[in-house]
Sequence to fold (346 residues):
Amino acid sequence: MREYPSDRIDLRSDTVTQPTAAMRAVMKDAEVGDDVLGDDPTVIELQNCLAKMLGKEAGLFVSSGTMSNAVAIRAHTNPGDEIVTESTSHIYVYEGGGYATLSGCSVALVSGKLGIMEPEGVSEAIRKEEGSLGHYPNGSLVCVENTSNRGGGTCYPQETLDAIAKVAHDNDCAAHMDGARLFNAVIATGTDPARIVRDYDSISICLSKGLGAPVGSVLIGSSKFITEAHRWRKMFGGGMRQAGVIAACGLYALENNIERLAEDHARARKLAEAVGAMEGFTVDLDSVETNMIYVNGDMTALEILEGLAAHGIDVLDVGPTAVRAVVHLHITDEDIDATIAAFSSL
Ligand SMILES: Cc1ncc(COP(=O)(O)O)c(C=O)c1O
Fold:
């Protein structure tokens, strides 16, 4: 698929996707209402559809993945609590410290391998106020990220996910999944989404990444949890009125853009293997399970960035000598070939 109003090959992120003509058509025809008053039928349909796909009771449409995680953290915790998450997770690295500002929580970090935590590490990181003579904060929430962005787009093994949720619940903590790219994990592992998230109390799904919608995330959980989350969405200023115009894109994406993620994964693999085999670049092929490629170079990230840009290719610098390329629905086989050729000319 291409349908992109630019001749650049934009591999910076899967968030750069633009709504296709078919998606714009459903947007134009979307039935809408006032979602703050609870009567936008398209938003309701999207929330119910995703909740059903994940085997949970309810959903809440929010503006972004960051807002979805922020609302989830706030709904699960009290000020003075502590959350547990992986040291490179989006919640810790890229959300402005929202867990501290918006929820009054501290954070306990767990080092993962390619972004994937082990249950033992999670267990060691959970601190409980009770029995600590008031020394510790109260660990009350464990957050996993699946797929793990900074881990390279890696997928959690199912037994690890189940064991981490058990550790959380055994310690009286809620378990939240930042599933910004959950459907990439669904396609890569061939596992039903409801099975992946079975033991998780809340899940955040992004529609505006690999799924190709322009805006929006959905927070999923029990009816009780979503009622609480609804209150925090309101207080965070996240109520949207005729949001059905964007929710319609989300519904379109769920119907049309999940299976095709396999194409993105195959293209990412091809690019990773080709660049990883080149002198001057290394790619940890074990990390390339979905649509992301992290490349380390003998040259600086800026040199790689500028060198590729001269060939009409955009990637993101993510470290002094590291860049990231992400494959998405506007990237074709020809684009992958052109990117391989550009890397080999650097
Ligand atoms: C794993 C993960 N979680 C959450 C987010 C936040 O999403 P948004 O950019 O919609 O706030 C991102 C964004 O890239 C992400 O990669």
About this structure: Residues 15, 64-66, 90, 145, 149, 178, 180, 206, 208, 217 surround pyridoxal-5'-phosphate (CB under 6 Å). The radius of gyration is 20 Å.
